[in-house]
Amino acid sequence: MPNLVREWPHELNRALTGIRPVSGLPGCYLADADLTKDEVLLLNLFEASARLGHISFMDPATSRRFLAYLSTPIGIGPPQEAKGGSVRVRIPLTDVHPH
């Protein structure tokens, strides 16, 4: 069965603005973002639909396209800025490689 590739939702592009590689773990990236309740819902629905399959996303800093697995996002506390969103979320990506 071919592996479906899900495209990162454009409504969540700003969540990837701080994406960075994890030091010492090749192919692993993290993005921490302040998200609204609606964005958290969209992220969770996307993660559920992409489970066990690849996702395609663009690194906003370099405009390079990558394939990866999206691991379960984790709530890590209150937003950095009170007006910036309702919760701070960590988005882990594994097996990241150019597309």
Which key phrases capture this entry?
99 residues; mainly beta; seven-stranded mixed β-sheet; 1 helix; 14% helix
Describe the protein in words.
By secondary structure, the protein is mainly β. It has one domain. The chain is 14% helix and 39% strand. It has one helix and seven strands; from the N terminus they run βββαββββ. The chain has one helix spanning 37-50, and strands at residues 5-7, 20-21, 29-35, 54-58, 65-70, 74-77, 87-98. Strands 1, 2, 3, 4, 5, 6 and 7 form a seven-stranded mixed β-sheet that branches. β2 and β3 form a beta hairpin. The longest helix is centred in the middle third of the chain and has 14 residues, at 37-50. The mean pLDDT is 91.
N to C succession of SSEs? EEEHEEEE
Low-pLDDT parts are none
Q: Helix share of residues?
A: 10-25%
Distance between the termini: 20 Å
The secondary structure category is mainly beta
Q: How many domains make up the 3D coordinates?
A: 1
User: C-alpha Rg, in Å?
Assistant: 13 Å
Main beta-sheet strand count, sense and barrel state: 7 strands, mixed
Average residue pLDDT = 91
Beta-strand residue fraction: 35-45%
* Net shape: globular
